[in-house]
Amino acid sequence: MSLPESPAQSARDRLLGAASVLFYNDGIAATGIDAIVKKAGVAKKSLYNNFESKAELVATYLEIRHDEWLALYARRVQQASTPKEGVMAVFLAYEDHAEFAYERGFRGCGLLNAAAELPAGAPGRVAVRGHKEQVESILTTHLLTMMDGDEAKAQRMARHFSFLLEGAMSRAGLEGNGECVRQAKAMAAGMMEAFEG
Question: How far is CA 193 from the centre of its chain?
Answer without folding.
Answer: 27
